[in-house]
Amino acid sequence: MLTPLMRRIALATGFVDHPSAERWHQRPTALMGGVAIVFGVGSVCWWCGPTDTGFRTMLGATGFLAVIGLLDDALPLKPYQKLAGQLAAAAAIIYAGYSVPWTGSAVFNIGLTVLWLVGITNAVNLLDNMDGLAGGIAAIAAAFLGINFAMNGQPTEAVVLFSLAAGLVAFLVYNFQPASIFMGDCGAMSVGFFLASAGLLAATGGRSRSVLSVLAVPVMILLIPIFDTTLVTILRSLAGKSVARGWNDHTSHRLVALGLSERHAVLLMWGLAAASGLASLLVRDFPVNVGVAILASLLLGFTLLGIHLGDVKIFSEEDLRAARKRPFVSLLHALSFKRRVFEMALDVVLFVMSYYLACAFLYGTGEDNPTWLTFRQTIALLVTLRLMTFLTLGVYRGIWKYISLDDAMRYAKAIVIGSILTAFFLKFILPLPVYGTVLVLDGVIAFVLIAGSRMTFLVFGRMLPQNLPKPAKRVLIYGAGDSGTMLLRLMHSDPKRPYEVVGFLDDDPFKSGMTIHGLPVFHTREALDQLVTKLDAHRLIVSSEKIPSDNVYELLDRHPRLRIEAYRLHVELEALSREPMMAAG
């Protein structure tokens, strides 16, 4: 009820956000959505929420930040002025007795609490860069925090978080693309601070839970804002840009640059937020070793996504070259190009995960199982020997973007040799038991994880469409064999993509009806006129010199308007030489 009212007031008073490079709206848009969220949700929380002093202090601090955000929307304020307000609100929360129980030191806990409150507040604020993005992700986070409260035996706190989720969903009716009102800093800062404070309630209240649950659940529920802020901070530092200033380089912007629409980019990020929220529920009551495995898998997936998104070119080459002249940025670039170090660190995590999964599958996850003692005693040896074999066999010389079957065979060979060496050391040098079945299963899982991590760029490339110019010519490839397949790959590797392959022609009748990389194969005796019209193909590419010229000329006679070219494939794959074939007559 309040959102359309605030929209009308904002438009009447000129309290609007004008189009900018950081926010892609096309017309001035009302900015008082945060006021509707704060009053709508705040009133319910005051009437139905906990009545203790600590919770009322949390509501007061949230309202204080809403006022700071509203002033920033109107003036705007300097970054240090907003930071001062956030620190004051955080101090009120700490004074009320809330802090993260992540260490045994009260001083460290207070410092981490300030970092948590200020960090999440600004993370949600930075996430408010596309219609419906911050509101949707905050609603998902609030819902999962509410579920977490309910499972903790804190029903009153659960009602508060479900109220926040419901209020944000109501706001999304007007904020989803195309948005007619924004929450502004008033809404983004207050919602972010309230979610961060609620995470403290979840960590300190309710029934007794595992340490991992206390540590991981709030982080996993709010993982999308944390991920986006971390990605932006790292990439802006490498580009020499200010982290405090707005740029169109967030996760959502990079997804759009890859070819997704704004709406699909927002929906994808909502899905990732829901996935991390579901993972937080799994971590709650599992044994610590299972929870660590789930958390490590989730963080690994987001790390690989961040690496892929980091390749999207946002800043100009001139800006990047100028940034590299600065000492600090130059040091960051020097570290970022140590690709082998990062790959080895990733593989260490994958080796530990594969060994853990093998032991858990065969012997269960109970921590009192004697197998886990052996796991802790032998994991360092296995990882060390595997890294040595990977280095010796040249695994780290490959480039992920161009992974091939030869690379996969090299991974398999290195894993097998590393497992054999581990078994040898355990059997004849160290007085430790050898679990042959575990090593075999570990090797299989390790191969899947290693090969899968290398193929992430191919997978992301298929899942996320590339924003490339539309090919000008639709073509058929003559020859559905090795040469035709190689030619298709070369065409796909061309960044300009002048051709779009729509199918294959082949003289072999047994290949008719089959597919190669998702493209259909047709027999040359089919009705070529109808086929070319149906596929809207402009020309035929002859993939190999082994195809008889008579067959090519026969096709040209049957369809004289079809342009025919021959591509001679160099063995060295240095280039494609194009040589038009002249038809007789």
Name its key features.
585 residues, Rossmann fold, 23 helices, 9 strands, disordered C terminus
How would you sum up this structure, described in words?
With 585 residues, the chain is α/β, with parallel strands linked by helices. A hairpin with a 6-residue loop joins strand 8 and strand 9 (576-580). The protein has three domains: 2-336, no CATH class; 339-462, no CATH class; 473-580, NAD(P)-binding Rossmann-like Domain (Rossmann fold, 3-Layer(aba) Sandwich). The longest helix is centred in the middle third of the chain and has 25 residues, at 339-363. It is built from 23 helices and nine strands. Strands 5-6-4-3-7-8-9 form a seven-stranded mixed β-sheet, with helices on one face. It has helices at 2-13, 33-48, 53-74, 79-95, 106-127, 133-152, 155-175, 184-204, 211-221, 223-239, 251-257, 262-285, 288-310, 317-323, 327-336, 339-363, 370-392, 405-428, 436-454, 456-463, 482-493, 528-535, 549-558, and strands spanning 16-17, 29-30, 473-478, 499-506, 515-516, 519-523, 539-542, 563-569, 576-580. Helix 6 (133-152) packs parallel to helix 12, helix 9 (211-221) runs parallel beside helix 13 and helix 13 (288-310) runs antiparallel to helix 16. The chain starts with a helix and ends in a 5-residue tail after the last strand.
Give the helix/strand layout.
Elements: H1 2-13, E1 16-17, E2 29-30, H2 33-48, H3 53-74, H4 79-95, H5 106-127, H6 133-152, H7 155-175, H8 184-204, H9 211-221, H10 223-239, H11 251-257, H12 262-285, H13 288-310, H14 317-323, H15 327-336, H16 339-363, H17 370-392, H18 405-428, H19 436-454, H20 456-463, E3 473-478, H21 482-493, E4 499-506, E5 515-516, E6 519-523, H22 528-535, E7 539-542, H23 549-558, E8 563-569, E9 576-580
Parallel strand pairs: 3-4, 3-7, 4-6, 7-8
Antiparallel strand pairs: 1-2, 5-6, 8-9
